[in-house]
UniProtKB/TrEMBL annotation:
Lineage: Bacteria, Bacillati, Bacillota, Bacilli, Bacillales
Source organism, top-level taxon: Bacteria
InterPro entries with a match to the protein in the record: C4_dicarb_anaerob_car-like, DASS-Related_Transporters
Cellular compartment(s): Cell membrane
Membrane topology, record value: Multi-pass membrane protein
Organism whose genome encodes this protein: Paenibacillus rhizosphaerae
Name of the protein: C4-dicarboxylate ABC transporter permease
The keyword Chloroplast belongs to this UniProt entry's keyword annotation: no
Main subcellular location: membrane
Swiss-Prot/TrEMBL keywords: Cell membrane, Membrane, Transmembrane, Transmembrane helix
Length: 468
């Protein structure tokens, strides 16, 4: 009997993350045989400078199903397409290993832990709120992964776990990105396409942000409290085993030395440069990777390391994060297959037709569901705006839904599911940096995502009722 139960549990064990991703690539391949190939015509919009879908221009094209023997090539193609993100993550891993080896993070987090030892849970809503600002102003999403190691270090020092540290950073940015109060990359562009005043209707998006931050804070605080009370309840016990051995003794905190202050100065200047570059100079992965590489090397010299020691620490950090970095390339293979099969536009058109056929009372919810589904196939906020908004805007005019409500449906669909989709570089990058398995993150996050979806649905209905 025991043997049977053991065998059954082994059979039901969650597959390896790479196995899940390859299975999804196979599903995408099958879709290229089932869904008719098609595409929209696209034209440049003078107001936005973007190539937009021409409504009503959908037409079928010659089928180009992806052969099963092409799957390995598609995965490699995915790795090449996402090379900037993959190498960015490897550089982050190497840089933070150099910084960590100096003892600076331990010295700082030890003092933070001592300061908040009796009220450490307040750190969680503070970090969530702080990173939400970055999310709703400059659209921080993928870039947030660079802050995850700091969040984990502080969370562990306060008696929490790596999952808590990762969540309070990445979900904070996600709350802000989803609310998109002043985000030019999703709300700003969508409003420009919908021809409504830029960043108008901010009052409802502020209410959305407050709701998301409140629910998210309570959810993470509750989980963190359980872990602090009983570490066995952590969903990432495997990551915490080594961390437990390094538990900080407040009576033996390492003294702050000159090398620590110099390293702190380097990191502060580096992150200030990051914020300036992203907001003012349109920096992206290439520039950010170069910035962090420089930050790591300078930090090493500040600690008195020689070139060989810096290189050794960098390789050690990059090596430890390779597993997670490559996941992003595998996930990208899903989109490569769908794109090669010319079925993404067919999916957009099919879903738009379904929404138009829904009963009037639920059509606005149909638009909301449509945008959430499309986020599975088009994870770029800009990409989804230029693909779906030209279709949704005329449809909303016919249905009697305000264009502002249509923008709200878009931004909610663009943001809510980002933190659970394996095709999201924002999520997979944060998990790669933290070392948390995708399956364990899903187990942690899915109840919160359901709450987010419910909040979004309620606000969409309210927006439709008041003709927002």
């Amino acid at each position: 009997m025991n043997t049977t139960n053991t065998a059954s549990r082994k059979w039901l064990k969650m597959p390896h993350t790479y196995v899940i991703l390859i299975f999804l690539v196979l599903v995408a391949t099958a879709l290229t045989y089932v869904i008719p190939a098609g595409e929209f015509d696209r034209a440049e919009d003078k107001a936005t400078g973007k190539s937009l879908v021409v409504p009503g221009s959908y037409h079928q094209v010659e089928a180009s199903p992806v052969s099963i023997v092409s799957i390995p090539k598609a995965i490699v193609h995915g790795l090449i397409d996402s090379a900037d993100v993959v190498f960015f993550i490897l550089i982050i891993g190497g840089t933070f290993e150099i910084i960590s080896s100096t003892g600076t993070i331990e010295a700082i987090t030890g003092r933070v832990a001592k300061r908040f030892s009796n009220k450490g849970r307040w750190v969680i809503p503070i970090f969530i709120t702080l990173f939400s600002v970055a999310g709703f102003t400059m659209g921080m999403s993928t870039e947030v992964m660079v802050f995850v190691p700091i969040g984990i270090a502080i969370a562990r020092a306060l008696g929490f776990d790596a999952l808590t540290g990762t969540a309070m950073i990445s979900l904070g940015a996600s709350c802000g990105f989803t609310a998109g109060i002043l985000n030019p990359f999703n709300v700003g562009l969508a409003q420009a396409i919908a021809q409504v005043p830029m960043f108008s209707g901010a009052w409802l998006r502020i209410i959305l942000l407050v709701c998301l931050i409140t629910v998210t804070s309570l959810y993470i605080v509750r989980y963190a409290g359980k872990v602090r009370k009983n570490p066995e309840r952590s969903l990432v016990q495997d990551l915490e085993k080594d961390a437990d051995k390094q538990e900080l003794d407040f009576s033996k905190l390492p003294p702050m030395q000159l090398k620590h202050y110099l390293t702190i100065a380097t990191v502060v200047i580096g992150f200030a440069s990051l914020i300036w570059g992203v907001s003012k100079k349109d920096w992206w992965m290439e520039e950010l990777a170069a910035l962090f590489l420089t930050m790591g090397i300078v930090s090493g010299f500040c600690a008195g390391y020689g070139p060989s020691r810096i290189a050794s620490e960098f390789v050690k950090g990059a090596k430890s994060i390779t597993y997670g970095a490559l996941i992003i390339g595998f996930a990208r293979g899903i989109m490569v297959v769908l794109d090669q099969g010319d079925v993404i536009d067919s999916i957009v058109n099919g879903l738009a037709v379904v929404v138009g056929e829904l009963p009037g009372s639920v059509q606005v919810l149909g638009m909301y569901v449509f945008q959430n589904v499309m986020n599975v196939f088009i994870t770029s906020g800009t990409g989804m705006a230029v693909t779906t908004m030209p279709i949704m805007v005329p449809l909303s005019d016919i249905l009697g839904v305000t264009r502002q409500t249509t923008v709200l449906a878009f931004q909610l669909g663009d943001g809510i599911t980002n933190m659970i989709l394996p095709t999201s570089s924002a999520l997979m990058g944060s998990l790669a940096v933290s070392g948390i398995a995708y399956q364990k993150w899903v187990k942690f996050f899915w109840p919160l995502m359901c709450m987010w979806i419910a909040i979004g649905a309620i606000l969409i209905v309210i927006a439709n009722i008041i003709k927002y």
